[in-house]
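Hi L., both proteins are below.
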Amino acid sequence: MPAFSLEPAQNTWCSELRALAADRLRPLAEKGEPGRVNHQLLAELGRLGLLPRLFTSGAVDLCLMRESLAQECTEAETALALQGLGAHPVHAHGTPAQRERWLPRVADGTAVAAFALSEPGAGSDAAALSLAAAPDGRGGWRLTGEKRWISNAPEADFYTVFARTTEGAGARGVTAFLVPADRPGLTGTPLDMLSPHPIGALAFDAVPVTADDVLGEPDRGFRVAMTTLDLFRPSVGAFAVGMAQAALDATLDWTAQRDAFGGKLRDLQTVAHTVAEMALRTEAARLMVYAAATAHDTGAPDLSRRAAMAKLLATETAQYVVDAAVQLHGARALHRGHLLEHLYREVRAPRIYEGASEVQRGIIARELYAEREAGR
């Protein structure tokens, strides 16, 4: 794919995805319960062949799916993305037995996956996590501690869990484990959050894990986490772009029909300039997202910087665009059930999860200085 344009077949596929989201996925999403896993929606994503693509596509296709679904049904987009985030470490770093047991069920929507990295004291600073993996004397470990703000918890069927196996080693002492939800000592509680998708906390009380549960290598789990985030950060940006586009489309429709001050709302210069700014920022974010996705798929050495830039720009842009759309719609946009009321709740969290905006700025600066030093 060229870095800054889509092929005709890709544009056609995106149109088909938007139609599927509107016609088949949104009705199922509307039947779901906020804050709970929507199993019917997951099953339909599997039947449509979208969940299997999580394991056969690159970052560009993932971004195309997330942006297209987000324009018509954010619940479907999020359900797809959370399956991918939780299961990608298994796909990329799991053993044949782990992949054989879980990936087919993730792909057909019968098993729910979750990515368990954040903790009460280790959100943005992921290397500071403290969930302890203590040796059990038989070649395995016991996990003790807490995870918090975990999407799909506590309803997931398995968790990709990151725990500290070596004290005092920072990022080098973290191991990734595949932990089925039925392990003794593992319990969870839902959290009542602004976003409508399921988020919960997990408590680990000496949960047993063995060498067969390790994803990758012991003490190398931070790499598992970061390679997963390098893939998903641009696609978080794609989700944000999809929401921004939905808000922009709604604003174009509204301002073209709304009577105000003897004409249409769009005839007011301040309105027209705001709409132009919304479109400008949305397109700029879209281009950066697909440039970062292309960098991932081509193995570009500056991927981490590009991924951070894409997530940062796109999520901050979506916040601006949705807020501007609410302002131009007025009070009606704040009615419960209005598209923009829904987007206003959805758009806030992506600036925090998978690395807050401040973290992305830190990554960008670090990579820039490293490149400068390497060039000397």
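That was the first. Here is the second:
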Amino acid sequence: MSTADRDGAGARRFPAQDTLTPGVPLDQIGQTLASFYDDLVAEGVPEHLAALVRRVRQAEPQADAAATPAPAAAEPRRIALVVEDEPQIRALAETLLEETELAVVGCDSAEAALRVLQERGGDVALVFADVRLAGAMDGLQLAHAVATLWPRARLVITSGHGVSRPDLPPEAVFIQKPWRPLDVLVEAERASGEPPPPVL
């Protein structure tokens, strides 16, 4: 075939994909063109081509924003508050409760627990507290404060010493130390699975 035949009316037309590098996405090609926009204009590229490249360049941020879905707002997890001044026992309880659906927050005193409750009281599903604690307040005083101010939280009080029932709020569950992991997990399951009591 002569040069004239190729350049004339009977010129061969190649499919568009033959002129593109296989496997390169079109948006990458557009970005590459946009990066050369200033050079193209300087070299006297026709205005209509320059305008096309300009539109590609302006559309890139919107295209990226449309392609990236907005992250869904994570619903805050309900909290298990472990209040224990013995670090090893607190760590054991925290590790155990981390196997549940609850997020775990550990405190070594009633005062520290009250600070958490003041900030996140509506999210606290379980308060698991020892009677003897570091600080001025003990676990029984904390339990009465929780029963009064955050009645929707499930209260579990534990101690190595006997506690008479009148000393506990009516809503509280008492577990003797050394507690069994299963007993703690059952209370955590109730706290996370059962609807909280109504606020009267």
